[in-house]
Amino acid sequence: MTELLKNNDEKELNKFLKQHADSAKNYNKKKELNKVAQLYDTHDFWKAQPVPQADEVVPENQLNKPIDAKKTVEEIQDEPLPIPTGFNWCNVNIADENEANEVY
Question: For a tag site, which of 21, 31, 54, 79 has the least CB within 10 Å?
Answer without folding.
Answer: 79
